[in-house]
């Protein structure tokens, strides 16, 4: 059993197609198929149902694919340990990010990261939180940037940001009595005046518990 064989298992499970999996692994399809046959002979069972399109894993194949992804993750971590011991950061970081964060956060960190770690690259994919969690579970991503607490993943808070609401001065939500914290509601005129020309207010979107909400 070899790491390349485990990569082929993970690739076929992800792509559900031998040709696409071979291209993703930068090998020929006969090479990939032959290595998978050897692994199946070693394990004593079929990993994929080749009679169906798209290809689907067998019960054994599902379990082996899960373990293969775990082993591949750990093998990458071993390389990371060696690099950290030498003070190096290199390789590719596969990063997912939700579309609402990407245009604001990436320009702040991409250039400094490239300057500090010239031997490393970042492959960024914009996706929804649900798709990102699936990609992390399938080992298609190394990390992701999301805005919600989620179960089943290791979370590390990076920053906090208040949500605000932009409403007309006469709107019911502009009533300062809706918000318990002093100064949570502050008035400001928009630089590009609204269509009605009236002043607008910024308001923290979270009302204090028990506060009435106008209807």
Written as H for each helix and E for each strand, in order along the chain, the element string is HHHEEHEHEHEEEE
Number of strands: 8
CATH domain class of the largest domain:
Mainly Alpha
What level of helicity do the residues show? 40-55%
Give a structural overview.
This protein is an alpha/beta fold. It folds into three domains: 3-80, Winged helix-like DNA-binding domain superfamily/Winged helix DNA-binding domain (Arc Repressor Mutant, subunit A, Orthogonal Bundle), CATH 1.10.10.10; 89-145, D-Maltodextrin-Binding Protein, domain 2 (3-Layer(aba) Sandwich); 164-204, no CATH class. The protein is built from six helices and eight strands. The strands form three sheets. The protein has a three-stranded parallel sheet with strand order 4-3-5, sandwiched between helices. Helix 1 (3-15) crosses helix 2 (18-25) and helix 2 crosses helix 3. The relative contact order is 0.08. Mean pLDDT is 78; it is low at 181-215.
List the helices and strands and how they pair.
Layout: H1 3-15, H2 18-25, H3 29-43, E1 48-49, E2 56-57, H4 59-85, E3 91-97, H5 102-116, E4 120-126, H6 129-137, E5 143-145, E6 164-168, E7 185-188, E8 200-204
Parallel strand pairs: 3-4, 3-5
Antiparallel strand pairs: 1-2, 6-8, 7-8
Helix pairs in contact: 1-2, 1-3, 1-4, 2-3
Characteristic terms for this protein:
215 residues; Arc Repressor Mutant, subunit A; D-Maltodextrin-Binding Protein, domain 2; 3 domains; three-stranded parallel β-sheet; 6 helices; disordered C terminus
Summarize the structure in short.
This protein has 215 residues and is of the alpha/beta class.
């Amino acid at each position: 059993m070899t790491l390349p064989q485990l990569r082929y298992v993970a690739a076929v499970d992800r792509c559900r197609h031998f040709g696409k999996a071979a291209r993703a692994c930068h090998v020929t399809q006969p090479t990939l198929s032959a290595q998978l046959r050897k692994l199946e002979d070693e394990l004593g069972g079929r990993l994929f149902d080749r009679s169906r399109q798209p290809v689907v894993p067998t019960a054994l194949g599902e379990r082996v694919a899960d373990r293969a992804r775990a082993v591949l993750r750990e093998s990458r971590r071993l390389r990371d340990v060696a690099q950290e011991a030498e003070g190096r950061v290199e390789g590719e970081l596969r990063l997912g990010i939700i579309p609402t964060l990407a245009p604001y956060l990436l320009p702040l960190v991409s250039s400094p990261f490239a300057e500090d770690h010239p031997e490393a690259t970042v492959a960024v994919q914009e996706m929804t939180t649900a798709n990102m969690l699936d990609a992390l579970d399938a080992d298609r991503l190394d990390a992701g940037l999301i805005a919600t607490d989620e179960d089943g993943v290791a979370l590390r808070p990076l920053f906090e940001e208040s949500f605000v609401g932009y409403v007309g001065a006469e709107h019911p939500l502009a009533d300062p009595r809706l918000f318990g914290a002093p100064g949570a509601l502050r008035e400001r005129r928009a630089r590009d005046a609204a269509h009605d020309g009236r002043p607008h207010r910024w308001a923290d979107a979270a009302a204090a518990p028990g506060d009435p909400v106008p209807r």
